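Issue 218. Parser rejects a valid record. Input:
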Amino acid sequence: GYEVTVETGGHIDTCGLDSRVFRIVDVKCPGSGMSARNQLQALQNLRSQDEIKFVIRDHEDFVFARQTVVQQRLDRLGSALLFSPVHGVLPAETLAEWIQKLPWPLVRLNLQLHKLIWPEAVCGR
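Output the parser choked on:
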């Protein structure tokens, strides 16, 4: 009777997970310094109920996310495409404007709500 969701980086293949598990895969953009670790071929194992997340630092990261969606045909999976601004770096309003120009209805602006609700907890403050 439980719903289980596993969130992992794009460098971990999720195909070994139980088929009942919902997956959220965080594809690392260049601004993270971790994009070389992505295993993009593993994205082809995702299903429509899974989600793909890009944390975007700047316009270069946005272009990377957009190109990855096209090259990996992620817009055809039916999965939610979550675009998150790096908190305190890229204004959510800016990312929202960029998203509005995309042709894919499954792209969602994804904010780190815990950082908005409890800003004093950010960076150990």
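Fixed in the parser; the record now loads. The mean pLDDT is 91.
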